[in-house]
Design goal:
GO molecular function, one term: metal ion binding
Helix content: 25-40%
Organism: Acidiphilium acidophilum
Number of strands: 16
Largest sheet: 9 strands, mixed
Keywords: Hydrolase, Metal-binding, Zinc
Oligomer: single chain
CATH topology of the largest domain: Aminopeptidase
Structural class: alpha+beta
CATH class of the largest domain: Alpha Beta
InterPro entries: Amidase_Cbmase, Bact_exopeptidase_dim_dom, Peptidase_M20, Peptidase_M20_dimer
Bound molecules: (2S)-amino(hydroxy)ethanoic acid, manganese (II) ion
CATH architecture of the largest domain: 3-Layer(aba) Sandwich
CATH superfamily of the largest domain: Zn peptidases
Number of domains: 2
Strand content: 15-25%
Domain Peptidase M20 dimerisation: 213-317
Length: 414
Amino acid sequence: MSGIGGNLRIDAERLWASIMETAAIGATEKGGIRRLTLTDLDRAVRDWFVARCTEAGCSISVDELGNIAARRPGRDNSLPPIAIGSHLDTQPTGGKFDGVIGVLAGLEVLRTLNDAGYQTHAPIEVIDWTNEEGSRFAPAMLASGVFAGAFDRDYAYSRTDREGLSFGAELERIGYRGDEICGARRLGAFFELHIEQGPILEAEGKTIGIVTGVQGMRWYEVTVTGMECHAGSTPMHLRADALVAAARMIGAVQAVGLAHAPDAVATVGLVEVRPNSRNVIPGEVFFTIDLRHPDDAVLAAMEAALRERLEAAAREDGVAMALTRIWDSPSVHFDAGCIEAVEDAARTLGFGARRMVSGAGHDAAYIARVAPTTMVFVPCEKGISHNEAEKSEPGDIAAGADVLLRAVLATDER
Ligand code: HGY
Ligand code: MN
Ligand code: MN
Ligand code: MN
């Protein structure tokens, strides 16, 4: 890349300070963040983001899914914007960096361009995608999925949390239901900076992950129905214990994951026992399953094996079992041109880098359907994420943001 663009570097301290500022919104005692989608804390961090981008001279648009786009004009505003983004919602025991660094690195790119008086050819947009985590409202990446045409608006609005509150009502309540049609605008390219959320970069001593794609992911819901009965007066051979059956099924989920390891992963993360009383034999258990694998055909085989095992367990334990797939996000391959821009930037800036597939899901997985897309990973300590102890170094995050800046400017110049 020619000219001053090649010499621009982000302000690492300012970026770190913005990350620590947002970490205070929903801070937990253990040093993490609890900032679930469409809660008052999500509204607070959105308000913070809109205020900072407005101060940076951006125009703000909010679409009907609550996706916020902060736009910095370029020389030719008829061109589709080059977008940078990620998410500001977190897991219940989330960390300071998951999603946040992708949005705030975008803000830092805008600030750096402003400081340098650098005018890009195309407009630049920084986007906060609603409900990436999928913890409160399943599935994950819901709003970037609507933007990419994977879901329709009303399906997203209809999704409810475990208290029965709907996505649409909560979006309205926090005041972020915009009127722009979600997905109506074209993006020229999309770049997402994210912590790796795995151990590879740290183990190899690399600073930058050049992300070539995202593995396939499927989510399921299981309801096991037995018979509530008295814990004291019901003989063991007369029971239809939903929790004992569910426990065997959960063991089967792990067995399916292990059978296709090391590339497969299988997780049961949410379990509800009803009536959840210590002297009642559980009559019903609800639990979720998260299956992932880089190869969609293997993912399909894992699903078939899972279904067979759960049905056999239900028969043997004399309970009913309903297994519903609620989400299927096929594996994704990112754009070769964007990948090269990231690879060239890491090489020019002298950072150790390697190509890799993402184990975690990201908004980029859906945006890749509608725009040339890729991701930049930076290490996190011991690969720990979705955990309040999540940690990433200021130097690594700054390196990722500089690679992002350079890749965006190189794409803008093409
Ligand atoms: O589930 C995921 O991989 C993402 O963190 N939502
Ligand atoms: Mn994330
Ligand atoms: Mn996450
Ligand atoms: Mn994610």
